[in-house]
Design a protein that fits this description.
Helices cover 45% and strands 13% of the residues. By secondary structure, the protein is an alpha/beta fold. The protein folds into 2 domains: 195 residues, Rossmann fold (3-Layer(aba) Sandwich); 126 residues, no CATH class. Helix 2 packs parallel to helix 6, helix 7 crosses helix 8 and helix 12 runs parallel beside helix 13. The longest helix is centred in the middle third of the chain and has 24 residues. The radius of gyration is 24 Å and the shape is globular. The two termini are 14 Å apart.
Amino acid sequence: MDKVVVFTGAGFSAPAEIPLQSNIIKEMFYKPTPSFLESTKESKKLLKSFILIGLFLLDEYSTVDTAELHSMNRLFKRLNKIYEINKVNNDDDELAIEQIKKLNERTNYNPFCEIAAFDMLDAQVYRLLLLLKESIREKLVKSRLLVNLEDVFTIFDKAIKSKENWHRFSYNELDSLEHALLRLFTYYFGRRINSFNNFNEYDSFIKYIELHKVTVISSNWDVILEKNFIHNKIKYDLCLNSEYYKSDLRNNNLNAKSIKYLKLHGSINWFHCLECGTVNLIEKKDIGTYLFDDKINEQCLQCKASSNSDMTLLRPEIITPTMVKDIKSQLYNNIWKKAEYELNMANKIIFLGYSLPIADFEIRYLLKKNIDKKTKIDVVLIETDKPDANNNSPEFRFKSLFSKNEIEFHYNGFNNYFKTV
């Protein structure tokens, strides 16, 4: 039996309407529906991440006057500090008053805060957060931002690695900004994935991999394929060493056959514990809101460490769209080495919804180095991917990189493709 490697790109997740990486910032522009507001009404963490990133984007990529927004943000921080003082001291008014007086002396802020402090409920602090978030969202929409996501992450990664400041931001502040943006990624991706139930779109693909010896390699972060595996009771192996990860899911009723599934850029349900270094796989819980629950602290599945307040404990384990990608960690080194082996052993490679972009130079190198010239290649795309007159097409890029291979192109989508092979 032929050894087949299926390589999936963004187009593979199109039936689930997963937002493209380049469009993820646009998710911040959409006005929340009432049901959305209701379902996240207790998530201060989400609002804080949105506000942090929203202000950064407006300050760095627009000409909008943000003075009023920053003033509102300072007011929120002030009132929230007072609220936290009361909370920590178990409503011990005398102790709280002393700490608030010291705080006032240091900050020289509007005395309104001191007068209003003890009448300020958590709900009022939250409403201020909502107001600030909505004001930022409206400014983002009106500013018509043209933001390249790779540029944003490159700023973060370059400054953090070099320990350099960026404009008025210290590299420590940029690290907080990057973390907030990563969390928003998990939220927006997770929100779409949680509503996915269109398994019929993947039926022909699932039937194919059940009948053939297949390894799946993916550049995607989403968990659409995992959801399909679980739905069809197919056991899959992420090929992570047990010492590096712990899962919250135990599938005892899965079939004996195990599909190797290598995620080259990580996954939005992988969370790196900054305490013990373990990767937590969150497969049962709601990914979109996992990091945004105000009622519980983050906790590592392995070492059981727990976060306090806004302290960062679990960091999304994904390789961001940046020009300074870092794939040298032991986790990714293991995954990429396994991908090299699987590509070397393959008799046939099927690319699904992957356009082979020039910017993916690490993946292009991986593929060129490890795919033999005798290996048959099928590239499955959609009608709009067909070549244009300027040679700016996936077909041109594939033919250029694999000039010695036999390549067939299919433009009717992967569901139709697998019905005919």
